Amino acid sequence: MKPPPLDATAVWISREIKFPRQLFRARFSPDGHTIAAGGQDRLVHLWDLRGEEPLHRSLNGHETWLSSLAFHPTAPRLFTADYQGVIHCWNYLDENSSKPIWTIPSADRDNVRSLVVTPDGRHLISAGDDAIIKFWRTDNGKEFIRLEGHHDCIFSLAVSPDGKHLVSGDLLGTIRQWDLADGSKFVRVLDASLLHTRGEQFLADVGGVRSLAFNAEGTLLAAGGMKDAKSNAFCPGKPTVLVFDWLNGKIRSELRIKGKSDGPLNSLCFLSNGTLAGHTEILHANSELVFWKIDQPDPLHSLVNPSAYELSLHPDGRQLLAACYLSGGSSGNGARKRDREKYISNGSTLRVFSLYRQPADT
Amino acid sequence: MPHPGSTSCQSPFHALSRRRVLGLLGGSIGFGSLVQPAIAREIAKKNKQVCLIWLDGGISQFESWHPLPGSQFAGPFRSIPTSIPGIHFSELLPHTARIAHKISIIRSMCTKDPNHSTGVPRIQRGDPIDRGVDYPYLGSAVAKLLGPADPELPPYVWIKPGNGGFIAREAGFLGAEYGALALGDGKAPIHIHRPESISAQQDEARQILRERANQRFKSYRGSSEIDAYETSYRMARQLMARKDIFDDTRIDPGDRERYGSHPLGRHILRARHLLESGVRFVKVNSYHWDTHSDNFNMSQRLIPQIDQPFAALIDDLDERGMLDDVLVVLMSEFGRTPIINSRLGRDHWPDCWSLALAGCGIRRGAIVGNSDRDGVFVDGTGYDIGDLFHTIFSVLGIDPRRKKYGHKGQKLAIAHDECGPIREVMT
């Protein structure tokens, strides 16, 4: 039977996995059978989705919060990074193995904020607080090359669909393009400084290029974050996407949300029909999953959802995974009476959104 | 105040002036009576100064003094060893970790107010029992209870971002005289310099005329606003005579580097100069610590801005022989929640938080109190802000059990009647 057509406006939650601790990163494996996730509890969590109920196991190796995840495109390898500069490589399909295949103990001075794997699977690319992009061989974790040029921490990396270009986005709103085919030479800067704010009374820079995504054809690059931050404390801003025309490097459109969310767009995904998906954050309220047509500033559609920190597109192109916030009931200022009895951590819900009309029998 | 015998410091701000000596030995205290313990105590009290560093909004205890690595609510940063064996701070405090043996940390503060608007005044007033009066903030209280350390300088100077001016409201029922002289961005009050076109005699004549006009106005109107105006004018004139304090060309470039070029660095360095010059109480404010969102990225950026100048200040006061007489308090109105919210921030948490103290009767290298395993609630005795005020007054040589404010014939406690000093943190 022919599957229903891709339609972001018909989005619905087709699967949900609740977890008692906060997960900030979650990704589908290349075959779509596994979800890997990580966050506050320092473990790498794996859910096998093939059964009626997802089968959970975890890998222990990090000593602090997980900050980034990436799957190898063909081999059974999962790369996980943390806030203290450690990267582990795991055989995530080997249920008898609980140790990393290899480890990079200091891939960054501090937080490894982004990991990507080149489409040919040969290199893992990392970037983060030390503002240096590093390439590692995926088979043994040996450093291959490093790229310098950013002046502050790097939040985001993306490789073009043809594997020829790498882009890196930093706190200051600078996107740098590197030519992977030609010795990883620096090519040009794309100006996303709209996503960075440093008010006169601020103690710190706020915002940055939190997410980068190419469309399937490699003709557009979307950069997500927020603009017009009002302070460095609550960090409220206007969630914004800048869509660049890849050919000339100019901003083609600026996309916004219509809801109240005031946090950055930490993750973006292009769907195969050119629709762009992103997710926002908000404090103590519901946020939203947003879809845009890239030439229309206002969303095509949005779905009320808790704050989420990462989106991952299923290999079938018809499902999105989001690591979402789940309140434990103890949030807010100061302890309540019940907190004295039991003070409960906030948790997560991993939500799978199906991007087609929900069948009547589900 | 610097020790007269200290020779280690070459700072131009640190020369003990004749008027400081006179201030110390002033009143009925004669040089020959120094041997008498009561008078020696009185002199010791006159030496005491305070630097309150206020991180408005609330610094996270997990990302600073009480990282609790491996616990359920710990942040992502490393904890690092300090110069106190077995004690760790967050890696965001490397400079302070190095001088931890010179300071004390209280990890068991437990206060009552989770809101800024009510919490800040409540904390800075010491939250005394409500007797229907508007209690003074700590700086005004010390200005009243100890008076100026140098009679020719304002007793209470407040360094803050933004605008300066005379802030009378901090004095509460004590009256405008004990308000704070605020230095916007740590700079001298505007118009501090007498224009060259006006001679000293002309300036004096202007002053007399102004005072007469004020007296006349005061004779048929309420006095409070006039008092505030008079006090601010007097303080401005005092500073006009001491404009050397604000001469930035005299600042050692090495100091600039050690304290940092960010506002907190510049302001804490200015605080040191004011303390060296003889100001009794200096408050340094930094705003925007209320990290409800993006707490971890912001802590990574903000906390180094207090770590560097705080450690430099403690080192410098120690090196100059001043640390035994200058009380340094580093605190906020509360800590931040163990739980991490939907925007990866921490909310307000008065139920178990930490602060740092140093100098002036404070034990060196003491870590006082503890939390439960996850840093949620205090394990054992929690200390309220009233306890901290008892401690502060006690180390300044003021007995909060005996000393009272007088207000309209009423005797008022200077600190919460049901609290007491935190002995573990005192020498």
Defining key terms:
A: 362 residues; mainly beta; Methylamine Dehydrogenase, Chain H; 2 domains; four-stranded antiparallel sheet; B: 427 residues; alpha/beta; Alkaline Phosphatase, subunit A; nine-stranded mixed sheet; 11 helices; 32% helix; disordered N terminus
Description:
Chain A is mostly beta strands and 362 residues long. Helix content of chain A is 1%, strand content 46%. Chain A is built from 1 helix and 30 strands. Chain A is globular and about 55 Å long. The model of chain A has no long low-confidence stretch (mean pLDDT 96). Helix content of chain B is 32%, strand content 16%. Chain B has helices at residues 18-25, 37-47, 94-98, 116-124, 138-146, 200-219, 224-241, 253-259, 263-277, 295-319, 385-395; strands at 49-55, 79-81, 88-90, 103-109, 156-160, 165-167, 180-184, 281-286, 326-331, 335-336, 348-349, 353-358, 367-368, 370-371, 378-379, 404-407, 410-413. In chain B, helix 8 (253-259) crosses helix 9 and helix 9 packs parallel to helix 10. Chain B has one domain (12-425): Alkaline Phosphatase, subunit A, CATH 3.40.720. Classes of the chains: A mainly beta (362), B alpha/beta (427). At the A-B interface, loops of A face helix 10 and strand 11 of B.
